[in-house]
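Blinded run. Sample ID left blank on purpose so nobody reads anything into the name before looking at the predicted structure. Input follows.
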Amino acid sequence: MATIKDIAKYAGVSHGTVSNVLNRRGNVSAEKIKLVERAAKELGYQLDFQASKLRRGKSRNVCIIVPDMERNRYNKLYAGIEKELREKDYTIEILCSDGLPATETNLLKKALSMKPTAIVLVSSLLRNEEPVPEDTMVVMVDQYVNGFPENAVFISFDYHRAGREIAEKCVRDGNKSVILLCENERYTSNRSFIRGAKEVLENEGCYFEVQEGPDFMLFNRAFAVLYAADPFDAVITMSRGAVESIKMACSYNPQLELPNLYSAVSRKFGYENSNMYEMDYKRMGKHIAELILKKEELDMRDEASWKVQLPGKIVEEGRLPKRKVYPLQSGETLKFLTVKNATSEAIKRLLPMFREQSRIDVQVMEVSYDELRRMITKMKVSGETVFDLVRIDMAWMMGESERIFRPMDGDNQTVRQICSSIFPGIPQEYYSVNGVMYALPLDACVQMLFCRKDVFEDELTKRDYYESRRQKLMIPEDFKAYNEVASFFTRRHNRKSPTGYGTTLTCGRTYTAACEILPRFYEQGGSVPDEAGRVRIDTEAMKEAFRGYLESREYAAEEAHFWWREAAEAFSDGRTAMNILFSNYAADMVHNPSSKVAGKIIYAEVPGGRPLLGGGSVGLTKSTKKEGACLQFLEWLYSDEVAELVTYLGGFICNKNIVDNAEILELYPWIEGIEEMFRKGKRGSQEKKNQRFDEFAFEDVLGQALTTVISGAATVEEALEEAQKTCERLFGEM
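Blinded prediction complete.
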């Protein structure tokens, strides 16, 4: 096998240079990095990254010890940890103890011999006897074990609460005799769960028994439960495996009656039986990884640092909201008008489920953005429509909502429930006008910056950038830096660029073009209307925004994207390094079957920190006579489960609980940052600085000015001067 000395000779560089390149350290030029990497590849050299890390004195090993990997919860736990740490160059070792203390002790010795930075342990021990080095972090999951150092972390779900809530559901369902199945009450989570369930059952006067036993005996225990002399009404368990074993055992004797089954389970995608209590172990894994990454910062004097308890939740009625009976609505048909996008497509796919549940048929009419605007304008004039529900762009709320929507009753129980489920950071511009609530935010979104993780974090690319710019390659925080980075990643300006273009731009229509300009304008301190209520766009701030945008065009493909979905798909092809999109179109970067960026996306604030808000809101039309059915549909649509499904399918319903779903965040990591960016977003201000101002009309005027400049028909100054005249005619004093 080739040695570092062989590589140095082959590449014509020093031994130290090879060492620095292979160990990813030191001030080495891009040219020498290429020489060393090419030589190593041609000589067949395989770097032992583990040995490399040990030589540097920084172990990046994490050992995970679990009873087995067959149970869903441990698969999810591992996936959550691995996803976060893999990106930070950690090596993860998974070890299975089969739930046997002796085996676990041997595995713990093996793990400690690897000198890991952390050990994550789902233990079957009651006490640990192995000495643990001070610099090795121990994370105990669910089971607290004595004998570990004082700085060990204990993380679990609230099993006491889970036991109580499952027992409460069991009692509400009318069960009088219950058997509680667990592995061993000496373990922390089992003891807490059983205690919580017993408190409820005792208080309600139910007969119950507790049966302990190892998981590998589940099938045997299932037969014992089913063939009990006095059959139980219900079984409460702590695993999905126990539920499946009882169902299987029952299938062998059709004369047996299956008891009602209740269980605490690891969360999984799809619909569960209503008697499940879900715990998101993947999110727990993500939390553990975050603790490991910041272990030096943990204050072990603060109990919250080393003892973490995560919440779960009971599944309601098969993960669907309970059907409500509206006596006059059964068999009703609703007509819903909306723009055609990923959210509308996802809703249509799920409607058969709502129809089956409610006997209410919802007919969705999807139209283009331009057609929706035309129909809304006509609806505003006539005051009549055949539609019961309409989704409008949030930029139209000020001008249109009072004319087409009936006010919503904020005291209505369904409306209150929906509002409580929505992202708290969403501005009132999505809901109300002049203090009156007319709509609910539907596919609310905000502009975000998306970058190619693989090119921004590539060592050779970073070195190239430093050598050409004399500064580090970073995610741009302002538009000046944005253009600088975009220039570097555009091959006609930098032949070494790993991508063809630095960015994508969406300017094929006047209102999409305006959305490119306004964040740049706001970064310059611009405001429309200004403090005096004047709509001034022929300003130096706007001219600077135009100039910055025109420079960005030098770093983008020549074809103009007419809509953000096109820009998302172009970015997914891997030809560009950066992309500014509204977040409700970002899923298209991942859903493209040929996507080259899936799993390689960094999200950040729009440069300048002043993003535009977007998306739309939904309201009940003044013409509808089906308010009850409309509210039932909206209650279903905004429920946790349906909102999650719509988001999985690439759409977005602004339900705040989506950010607690680790599966969704793995697919679409930017969703975790949306709420904070909503708070910084700007669009459709309701401050009455100018009674005649119309956001949509203004953006149309601004976009026309930009497209005129792009076409070469006018200079920036000429186009803005003409646009200023139009603004004075539309929004000037009456």
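Unblinding after everyone has recorded impressions. Residues 49-57, 316-329 have pLDDT under 50 and may be disordered.
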